[in-house]
């Protein structure tokens, strides 16, 4: 429906109402958000518009439990279309709610639309963000928790409290200016962020910061930090002065518990760590510093404050690993393994199968590189730079089998196209088959790749070019299952995914400029069975756009959210 209001004072985020309705298989959570751009209170002393919630970043926490159903009614008070995507939420049988350009028509200015999605069989730490128009560069992100059911204990003592910590790089100036810079080769590939934010706040004791983040703890207590890198460019090393961290979870998978002095968190990744307040009452630095960056003075700095502290944090920041030591980073990544002994919602229920004896039905080898396409700086996968059509792929798939919007199987999944070109890349994934995805990074920068709709098993990392012999180095015993993985410069990462979730699923670089410049494709996982228990029909409030702007939705049975 349309609505009107005075737009001058509304912050980007305004959580008008939260309602909980109990049901047998969880609860229904109802959220109303007002969304606009605001040039009021921003993280730094800069003249820029930012995506704010009640004058602050980040947006409201979505705090849910396994199998809860979340209804988010988004009111778009901006002057441009808007979509949100829910990073790591699998949208089981329901890619209609995924919130990317290939699945959804955007919410038009001065309109609203309600997302309805279930946290089906999931637990863990995630986040959401605006997925179109480069808006993520101006904020608009927020945390998601999916808690265990009461009868499913976590594999560690219950912490005293939980803290959500969203870390990420930030650019001064308007996001539209940053987007414009990507149109020229001189600036498209080498734009350096200005600072690192923690929960939308600038660094501690920084002349440009309006405020900084503080977490208050009590001596002797243990706390769970849910950390997500919501930035657009930089991998970050996270650490807390004089404290160790116990890694316990990443993106819905409980990990083998390892003690760390610091943790690399790459763009789009989420982790849970336990921190025990075991030092004398004082204040301590919390640091997020960039990887692979020569610039000094760019770091996120917050404070861990003991409740009885009378001593301010001071002195030099705690040092982390060499920012260019990729061997350290890769070895740490290989040490993060799945905890196979705990019970929880998981993509691979314990005992149902093992990735050590699977039969692969498909292998995609995806090579990323820079290129010029039609005189414009672009990024390409196998020499194809993704072109975003006005019509969502999922909508075209439903109404015309994609005719007029995309052609299936035009994208080369195991070879590099001879010519560099634009393409609306859609490939078939074999329903209920195992796929091997090999991400080959031919660039000088770190990259991250994410697959909507699934958790994949990260089986291998390596330097140089991947060959079939690299499979001999894979960890197929206890690879961690997650939805975002890093790919090291001039290196490769291999993952396995079991394609049991029908839909149209975005496979993309999580690095914002890479995504914008063409590093993405879609995997169409098709199940011909019309039973809505396999894939849900379109929602009753389906939006139409592009070729189908004036289309109406034919009546269909069973449009309710099945459990």
TrEMBL record:
MF annotations from Gene Ontology: copper ion binding; oxidoreductase activity
Keyword terms: Glycoprotein, Signal
Domain Plastocyanin-like: 47-150, 165-308, 391-528
Domain of life of the source: Eukaryota
Classification via InterPro entries: Cu-oxidase-like_N, Cu-oxidase_2nd, Cu-oxidase_C, Cu-oxidase_fam, Cupredoxin
GO cellular component: plasma membrane
Leader sequence residues: 1-26
Family: Belongs to the multicopper oxidase family.
Name under which the protein is recorded: Plastocyanin-like domain-containing protein
């Amino acid at each position: 429906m349309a609505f009107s209001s005075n737009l001058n004072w509304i912050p980007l985020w305004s959580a008008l109402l939260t309602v909980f309705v109990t049901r047998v298989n969880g609860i229904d959570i109802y959220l109303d958000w007002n969304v606009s751009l605001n040039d009021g209170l921003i993280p730094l002393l800069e003249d820029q518009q930012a995506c704010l919630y009640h004058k602050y970043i980040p947006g409201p926490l979505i705090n849910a439990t396994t199998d809860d159903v979340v209804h988010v009614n988004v009111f778009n008070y901006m002057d441009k279309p808007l979509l949100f995507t829910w990073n790591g939420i699998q949208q089981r049988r329901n890619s209609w709610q995924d919130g990317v350009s290939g699945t959804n028509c955007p919410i038009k200015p001065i309109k609203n639309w309600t997302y309805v999605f279930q946290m089906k069989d999931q637990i863990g730490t995630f986040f959401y963000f605006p997925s179109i128009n480069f808006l993520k560069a101006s904020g608009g992100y927020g945390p998601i928790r999916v808690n265990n059911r009461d009868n499913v204990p976590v594999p560690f003592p219950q912490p005293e409290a939980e803290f959500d910590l969203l870390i990420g790089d930030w650019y001064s100036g308007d996001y539209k200016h940053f987007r414009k810079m990507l149109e020229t080769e001189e600036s498209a590939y080498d734009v350096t962020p200005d600072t690192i934010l923690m929960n939308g706040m600038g660094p501690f004791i920084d002349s440009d910061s309006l405020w900084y983040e503080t977490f208050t703890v009590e001596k002797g207590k243990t706390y769970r930090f849910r950390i997500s890198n919501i930035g657009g460019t930089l991998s970050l090393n996270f650490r807390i002065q004089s404290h160790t961290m116990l890694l316990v979870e990443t993106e819905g998978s409980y990990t083998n518990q390892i003690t760390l002095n610091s943790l690399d968190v790459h763009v789009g990744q989420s982790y849970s760590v336990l921190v025990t307040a075991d030092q004398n009452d004082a204040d301590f630095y919390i640091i997020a510093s960039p990887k692979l960056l020569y610039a000094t003075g760019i770091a996120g700095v917050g404070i861990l404050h003991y409740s009885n502290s009378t001593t301010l944090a001071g002195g030099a920041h705690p040092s982390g690993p060499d920012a260019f030591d990729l061997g350290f980073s890769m070895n740490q990544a290989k040490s993060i393994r799945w905890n196979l002994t705990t019970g929880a919602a998981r993509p691979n229920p314990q005992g149902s199968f093992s990735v050590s004896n699977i039969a692969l039905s498909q292998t995609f080898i995806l090579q990323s590189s820079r290129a010029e396409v039609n005189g414009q700086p672009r990024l390409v996968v196998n020499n194809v730079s993704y072109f975003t059509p006005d019509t969502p792929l999922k909508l075209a798939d439903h109404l015309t089998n994609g005719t007029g919007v995309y052609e299936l199987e035009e994208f080369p999944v195991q070879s590099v196209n001879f010519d560099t070109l634009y393409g609306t890349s859609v490939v078939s994934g074999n329903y209920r088959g195992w796929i091997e995805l090999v991400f080959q990074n031919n660039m000088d920068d770190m990259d991250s790749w994410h697959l909507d709709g699934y958790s994949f098993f990260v089986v291998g990392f390596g330097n140089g070019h991947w060959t079939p012999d690299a499979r001999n180095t894979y960890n197929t015993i206890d690879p961690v299952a997650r939805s975002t993985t890093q790919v090291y410069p001039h290196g490769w990462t291999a993952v396995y995914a079991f394609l049991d979730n029908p839909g149209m699923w975005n496979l993309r670089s999580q690095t914002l400029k890479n995504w914008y410049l063409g590093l993405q494709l879609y995997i169409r996982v098709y199940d011909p069975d019309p039973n809505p228990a396999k894939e849900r029909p379109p929602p009753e409030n389906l939006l139409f756009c592009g070729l189908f702007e004036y289309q109406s939705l034919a009546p269909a049975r069973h449009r309710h959210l099945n459990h």
